[in-house]
Amino acid sequence: MTGFVAERAVRSHAFTVDLPFERAFRLFEPEGERAWATGWDPAYLHPRDGRAGPGMVFTTRHGEEETVWMATRHEPAAGLVEYARFTPGSRVGTVLVQCARLGEARTRVTVIYTLTGIAEKGNAYIRGFDEDHYRDFIESWSRSIAAIR
After folding, report:
1. Which of 50, 87, 114, 117 lies in the 20 to 30 Å Cα band around 129?
2. Is residue 22 within a helix (H) or strand (E), and if so which, with residue range?
3. Can you give the pLDDT at residue 149?
4. How far apart are CA 94 and CA 116, in angstroms?
5. Domain boundaries, the chain
6. How much is the pLDDT for 2?
7. b/e burial code for range 4-26 (CB count within 10 A of at least 16 → b)
8. Which of 106, 95, 125, 103 minimizes the C-alpha distance to 6?
């Protein structure tokens, strides 16, 4: 038995976008994220056409890390999408995005990351993923989305 002890973080932050609910929701599907997330380039494994839905699987690469994603929930009418994610040698977790109507042209977006280290590299990542870092990270989403208008 090794002495490794997994660290875990649950982070939540919300922001508002000046977009109708349906349009805002689509920005959090893998293909929609291309419009605003710099470097986001999902490679679709299933279905190959990248059609969003429960069970879809894709990979992303950022620097030296590759992450495998699987959509576990996809409920457009409820504004809910959730992904399980696995970064080998580092961490595993989920990302939950909930969109809520605030009117005809405004949507509140809540993003919840739950991450668990599976190696010391993942634990180090999680320690750096503190509340301040997470808030800044999610607020950068808000700024990027506002810039595509």
Report:
1. 50
2. helix 21-26
3. 63
4. 9
5. 8-147
6. 74
7. eeebebebebebebebebeebbb
8. 125
Tokens of 48: 């190959």
Q: Give the burial string for 100-121 (b: 16+ CB within 10 Å, else e).
A: beeeeeebbbbbbbbbbbbbee
CB-CB contact of 14 with 145 (8 Å): no
Tokens 């990351």 correspond to 113
Q: Report strand pairing: 8-17 vs 107-117.
A: antiparallel
For 8-147, give the CATH class: alpha beta
What tokens were used for 101? 């109507």
Two tokens, residue 61: 């690469």
Please give the Cα distance from 110 to 97 (Å, whole number): 6
| H-helix or E-strand spanning residue 136 | helix 131-147
d(CA 93, CA 72): 12
pTM score, two decimals?
Answer: 0.94
Listing DSSP states for 75-134 in one string gives EGGGTEEEEEEEETTTEEEEEEEEEEE-SSS-EEEEEEEEEEESSHHHHHHHHHS-HHHH
- Whole-number Å distance between alpha carbons of 118 and 61: 18
